[in-house]
Recover the amino acids of this structure.
């Protein structure tokens, strides 16, 4: 018998497939690529009774923290409807969470789409100003 988390993870895959989103399942999460970035989607147990869906998108790797970067991240967070941008350990990420217990397909598709578009846009903008590598460049086997 599947757990609630496994059921939600399966539902995520079904919703993406029905919407025609090309995706890859690896290591218990789903990857949807767009341009130079990707959105990774996984269901997790939360507070021992809920399922939360975590959507994360790696924006840049190898970027040093600076006042300018933190100000830019703050300005982005002020304007974003979907997601939050943050810096951690020389990486910039875009993340958004959904409750998974009553997963709505339109909400999932909109969230994945918006995160993919935003990550693909801001990685170029931030890289030009602050350096680092975009996900596609860091993930490439030739790099």
């Amino acid at each position: 018998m599947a757990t609630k988390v496994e059921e939600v993870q399966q539902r995520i895959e079904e919703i993406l497939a029905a919407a025609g989103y090309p995706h890859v399942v690896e290591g218990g999460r789903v990857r949807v690529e767009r341009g130079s970035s990707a959105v990774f989607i996984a269901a997790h147990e939360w507070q021992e009774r809920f399922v939360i869906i975590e959507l994360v998108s790696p924006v840049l790797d190898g970027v040093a923290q600076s006042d300018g970067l933190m100000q830019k991240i703050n300005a982005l967070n002020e304007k974003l409807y979907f997601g939050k941008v943050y810096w951690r350990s020389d990486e910039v990420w875009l993340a958004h969470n959904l409750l998974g217990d009553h997963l709505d397909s339109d909400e999932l598709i909109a969230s994945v789409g918006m995160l993919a578009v935003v990550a693909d846009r801001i990685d170029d903008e931030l890289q030009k100003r602050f350096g680092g590598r975009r996900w596609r460049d860091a993930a490439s086997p030739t790099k």
